[in-house]
Write a structure and sequence with these properties.
single chain, alpha+beta, 6 strands
Length: 125
C-alpha cells in the first residue's frame, strides 16, 4: 500500500467516525457530580440508541414530577447483565445519576438499586 493510499484510507476512517463522536456527547449533563433519587418506575423504553426510564419522583412539597432517565444502548446493557424485564412499571428504585445542567427533571443514569436487592448498583450506562 502506498503512502497516498494509506493516507486516504486513514482520512476516510476518521470522517466515518466523527458523527459517532457527536452522537455520544453527554455535554448536557453534570458529569462531575451525582444526584440521588428515590423513584417509582412508570415506563421502560428498551430501545436503541439508548434505553430510557421514566420515573415519578416525590418532591419536598409532596407533589410528584416525572423524570426522564437516559441509559446506555440495549447491546451495552445486555452485555452488563440487564434484560428487558429487569425493571418493571411500579418498581421502587434508588437512582444515582448525572443531573441535566439546565436543572430540568432528567438524568444520565449511573446506578440503580431496588429495596429487595434484585438490582444492586449495577451500572446502567
Amino acid at each position: 500500500m502506498t503512502m497516498k493510499s494509506f493516507g486516504l484510507a486513514s482520512l476516510a476512517a476518521l470522517l466515518i467516525a466523527v458523527p459517532a463522536w457527536g452522537h455520544h456527547s453527554h455535554a448536557n449533563y453534570e458529569l462531575n457530580e451525582f444526584l440521588e433519587l428515590d423513584a417509582t418506575v412508570t415506563q421502560v423504553m428498551w430501545i436503541n440508541p439508548h434505553v430510557w426510564l421514566y420515573v415519578d419522583v416525590e418532591k419536598e412539597d409532596g407533589t410528584t414530577s416525572t423524570w426522564a432517565l437516559e441509559g446506555g444502548s440495549v447491546a451495552a446493557l445486555t452485555r452488563g447483565g440487564w434484560r428487558r424485564d429487569s425493571l418493571a412499571v411500579g418498581d421502587e428504585i434508588h437512582v444515582r445519576c448525572h443531573h441535566l445542567k439546565d436543572g430540568d427533571d432528567g438524568c444520565l443514569l449511573g446506578y440503580i438499586s431496588t429495596p429487595d436487592g434484585r438490582i444492586t448498583d449495577k451500572e446502567f450506562d
